[in-house]
Write a structure and sequence with these properties.
The chain is an alpha+beta fold. The protein has a domain of 47 residues: Irregular (Rhinovirus 14, subunit 4), CATH 4.10.80. 26% of the residues lie in helices and 21% in strands. It is built from two helices and three strands, in the order E-E-E-H-H. A three-stranded mixed β-sheet has the order 2-1-3, with no helix packed on it. Strand 1 and strand 2 form a beta hairpin.
Length: 86
């Protein structure tokens, strides 16, 4: 094996979350910053955060209502004349 090719390992690296939670773990970097941790993640806290204010179902209903309204306002098409076979 080659010597001196592995990065330095810090057994007590400081990890800081955006919520303010700080904990230690082993890493190749001395300080780490993360956006979410077990103290603020909805799965672990049991609190659900709504990201999407208008749901997909609401958007679909709105589009279908608009399509039905436009269809009602549109002029009915005249039936096409079809030639009969001889």
């Amino acid at each position: 094996m080659k010597s001196d090719i592995h990065p330095k390992y810090f057994p007590n690296a400081k990890i800081t979350c955006a919520c303010g939670n700080v904990f230690n773990a082993g890493s190749t970097q001395e300080e780490l910053h993360t956006e979410i941790c077990s103290a603020c993640h909805p799965f672990y806290t049991g609190k659900q955060k709504l990201v999407d204010t208008t749901g997909t179902v609401d958007k679909f209903k709105k589009r279908s209502e608009l399509a039905a309204k436009l269809k009602a306002e549109a002029k009915p098409k005249k039936p096409r004349k079809v030639r009969e076979k001889k």
